[in-house]
What does this fold into?
Amino acid sequence: MSKAIPYGRQNITQEDVSAVTEALQADYLTQGPRIKKFEEEFASYVGSKYAVAVSNGTAALHLNALALGVKPGHKVITTPITFAASANCVRYCGGDVVFADIDPETYLLDIQSVRSLLEKSPSGTYKGIIPVDFAGRAVDLEAFRELADEFNLWIIQDSCHSPGGYFVDSKGVEQNCGNGNFADLAIFSFHPVKHIACGEGGMITTNDKSLFQKLLSLRTHGIVKNDDLYTNSLEFASAKASSEHYPLWYMEMQMLGYNYRITDFQAALGSSQLLRANIGVAKRREIAERYFNYFEGKDYIKSQSGVIEGHAYHLYVIEVEDRLGLYNYLRENNIYAQIHYIPCHLMPYYRDLGWKEGDMPNAEAYYRRCISLPMFPTLTLKEQKDVIDCIEGFYNA
It folds into this structure.
């Protein structure tokens, strides 16, 4: 086997190239009309009222924590099986991250583990929850919303793995990841291995107009450019004794914000990729079904049962005993599987804050066995067969 097979790969078409080229030849490279267009298209795709495009998924998380008022001493609960940014955004604001364990079957944040933390603490101890749609499987946010309301908490939904994913609520309605019906805010990533690639980039979705307006300001240095929101006097703004309107050039920095903007050519790529988003998710589910059909009945490999409704399959994760042996064998055969993730609470930074082995037994047991197989829409039947044959070869040997 000669051609390398990565665990994830972007799909850039001629239509994508043409969209970016057109943007590069236009009047705006950044802060232009393509950003708003992408935001509106993405909001429509997930079913939210508002969307704010930013420079990456980490920036999206940070801005969400800022918009929700996370401050030193605030405690926020999240999962240890996620990319570190899901937790780090709380630390950026001086807050305290508290990890709750995962459900060993779904790999998602275990709601009973969260409830246990909340019930053991005085009222008001915690401010929010950050559930993660890990691997593309949607969290049951209806249940988390009920829990959050019971304890007066906000929710940030980390949907970086799950654009196009959904869960089915208690009324039988499909609830798209990021639609804002249960979470206060949701975030997505446009890193190359994600469903929609912009090189780098992120999106925040919400149904809350006040949070939306705050995010727009925080994204651009805390600056507002809106007559209705200005606090300085007209006299000051116009630099003369009286004026009926604020000058067109006037703006105010009203809070400490950041430069977390996305560019127009990235937004153009995002809009082009969004046109194929549903096709991409459908292909991911086909690949997942082929994996499942092969792994079914093999007692030496744990694979989630069947193709799960609403799963967006950013990753296809299996669990095995000799994870290192399989990982190395696949690499020797040019198949670059990956591990998602080293538990956040065991990263040296979080160990220094007091977390230790044994704190999250389900997450730690999962980490010892997990491996993510190649999963992307352009994975060919032959490539997937090569992956499966290689796994079979490892165990036959």
Observations:
- The chain has a mean pLDDT of 97.
- Residues 278-396 form a domain with the Aspartate Aminotransferase, domain 1 fold (CATH 3.90.1150.10).
- The first helix runs from residue 14 to 24.
- The first strand starts at residue 5 and ends at 6.
